[in-house]
Amino acid sequence: MTTTTPTTNQSISSSEKRDWAALERKYYQHTFNRSLVMERGEGVRVWDANGTVYLDLVAGIATNVLGHAHPAVVRAIQQQATQLIHVSNLYVNERQVELAEQLYNVSGGMRSFFSNSGAEANEGAIKLARKYGRLNRNGAYEIISMDRSFHGRTLATTAATGQKKYQDTWRPLPDGFKQVPFADFDALKAAVSNKTIGILIEAVQGEGGIYPASTEYMQQVRAFCDEQNLILICDEVQAGMGRTGKFFSWEHMGIRPDITTMAKGLAGGVPIGAMLAGDRADIFEPGDHGTTFGGNPIACAAGVATVRTIIEQDLLTHATEMGNYLGGKIDELAKKHSIITGTRGLGLMRAFDLAEPRAQDIMDRALERGLLITNAGPSTIRMVPPLILRGSDVDEAIEKLDEALAAL
Ligand SMILES: Cc1ncc(COP(=O)(O)O)c(C=O)c1O
Question: Does 6 reside within a domain?
Answer without folding.
Answer: no
